[in-house]
Amino acid sequence: MRGLYFDIDHTLMSERPMMALFLPQVYEKLAKKLGVSRDKARELFLREIVLRRDSYEWHDWNFFFGLFGLDMRYERLIERYPHRITVFPDVVPALEVLRKRYLLGIITSGPEYQRLKLKVTGLLKYFDVIVTREDAKTVKPDPKIFLMALEMAGLKPNEAVMVGDSLWQDVYGAKNVGMKAVWINRNGERDFHMADFTVRNLHELIKLLGVGT
């Protein structure tokens, strides 16, 4: 095995602190724009997100801002509130160890601002290959996005492992092209035994790979 690919959201970092900041602003702006209550605005916004789950658009906050005509851009939020993007505490120590042994990459269904998130959190320097939905013109679990990431690194599917939190996007998507898949189950969710291996954090991944410090 020569390469390790990672998902970003809920695998390396969390946007929840950022969401807690901007979603109330979204509901307030939308309520005023539509002349409805804040609760109704919240219902309308979240309904659109649920309806588009796992679609190409679902992965982009800017799509939903634009859908409702809101003057907001997620890039501006990232640049203004970088501390609201929280990297899990196991991530940097693990990447420091893993990059000494493996080629490291990112495969994300998110848009171009995923690179900005990696930059402001200090994680960008760890990755040799980054593939976003714009690069592949598709999202996981489409084989195209995985194959593009492998080709960019000069790797065959059996030479790489995908690490991610989504059984559908990350695990199924990777296995479908012949890669091994590690499910990172940070919240102790029910394990459907789809992945080749399951870990709770990246410290466990290091032990699984038998990589020393």
Short description:
By secondary structure, this protein is α/β, with parallel strands linked by helices. The protein has ten helices and eight strands. It is elongated and about 55 Å long.
Key words describing this protein structure:
single chain, 213 residues, alpha/beta, 6-stranded parallel sheet, two-stranded antiparallel sheet, 10 helices, 8 strands, elongated
- Unreliably modeled segments: none
Q: What is the count of helical runs?
A: 10
The H/E string reads EEHHHHEHEHEHHEHEEH
Q: How many β-strand runs?
A: 8
Share of helical residues? 40-55%
Structural class label:
alpha/beta
The radius of gyration is 18 Å
Through-space gap between termini: 18 Å
For the largest sheet, list the strands in their spatial order: 5-4-1-6-7-8
Shape: elongated
Mean pLDDT: 96
Q: Could you describe the largest sheet, including whether it forms a barrel?
A: 6 strands, parallel
Strand portion: 5-15%
What would your notes on this structure say?
With 213 residues, the protein is an alpha/beta fold. 45% of the residues lie in helices and 14% in strands. It contains ten helices and eight strands. It is elongated, with a radius of gyration of 18 Å. The mean pLDDT is 96.
